[in-house]
Amino acid sequence: MSFARPHCSNVRAGAAPSSPERRSRSPWTPCVGPTLGAILGLATTAGGTAKGGLLLAVYSAGLALPFLFSAVAFNAATRAFTFFKRHYSAIQVGSGLVLIGMGYLVLTGELFQLNIQAQQFLSHFNLNFFQSV
To answer: What torsion, rounded to 10 degrees, do the Cα atoms 78, 80, 86, 87 define?
Structure first.
């Protein structure tokens, strides 16, 4: 007598977490590890409940603010991506032309000459950082 076993392609016994799971929890490791332990230790030994609560509130704000900023940035990025989505074919053609032009400059050796001219131009303004290297 054989038992039918449901097929689950994404679940393996004893398997390590998938890459998105690892990426989402790895930034938290320093936050919930020694840092949170130190903050909780300071909060319990602080002069009073208010001081301990203030330490935990500042720590919580430090965790929350990057997420709030990324939410605002995501909204702005979504608007920017709609521009790129609308003009995708023109961007693709322009990028291809730049790539062909750079390939031509490398093939003929003119990219090296342009680099030398750019360094000479920047040295007039004391912006040629490659002189000291």
So the answer is: -150
